[in-house]
Amino acid sequence: MSITNSPGLNADAPPRLDAFRAGAIGADTVFVSVVDGSFRVLGQSTFQSASATRQVAWVQDEGTDTCGLFMQALASTYGTEVSSSVAREFGLRPAPGQPLASRTVFAAIEAAETGRQALAGVDFLTILEHSAYNSGPAFRHIARDLGIDTALLAKPERQRIDAALRVKFADAAAAGKCPVASETASQWLMNELKVLTK
After folding, report:
1. How many angstroms separate the CA atoms of 80 and 75, rounded?
2. pLDDT at position 56
3. Quick one: residue 176, left, alpha or beta (phi over 0 = left, psi -120 to 50 = alpha)?
4. Which of 47, 97, 147, 178 could form a disulfide with 119 if both were Cys (CB 3.0 to 4.6 A apart)?
5. Nearest by Cα to 112 from 141, 89, 82
6. Which pTM value belongs to this model?
7. How many helices (H) and strands (E) does the chain have?
8. pLDDT in tens, 48-93
9. Helices 17-24, 102-122: inter-axial angle, 10-degree rounding
10. SS3 content of the chain, % helix, strand, coil (to 5)
11. Distance (Å, rounded) from C-alpha 69 to C-alpha 73?
12. What's the pLDDT at 48?
């Protein structure tokens, strides 16, 4: 049996997704243990000799829930909507004292990344409609309602507005709040444009 150690964090904070990924590299399974007051994601592999395969048990905290901590790490990185969908797809649920297959770790991370990219695509049209740089229809309408002459807005100012909106869309995606309603994006844009009228 081989056990590899990945970087851990203070036991008050759950391990990050990178720790699960690192622990799973070259290992059959991963499990979380508390080592010197920090969470550690440990990878475990079984070695076969020419004559036999040996199953070797390891000592682990009975209360440590590897799968539950992995789901928390997914939610922290990809948001609750994406992580909940991945958990359903892969049948991930709390299982204290049980290891998690490394192939499941990699497949779940790949599915979460795909899900996040798909959700980002859902907001594509809303982002275009509210783009200051591209003079989207929602941008023109809100600017007109606020009495702003869009012809007088310089390129850097339009880029600043779009950058601020991209941050809002990214925050919403990270929080699992996709797709963003057009009304919400309009409110964000209105707040950015109101700065120009002061």
Report:
1. 5
2. 45
3. left
4. 178
5. 82
6. 0.62
7. 8, 5
8. 655 555 544 444 455 689 999 999 999 998 888 889 989 999 999 9
9. 140
10. 55, 15, 35
11. 6
12. 62
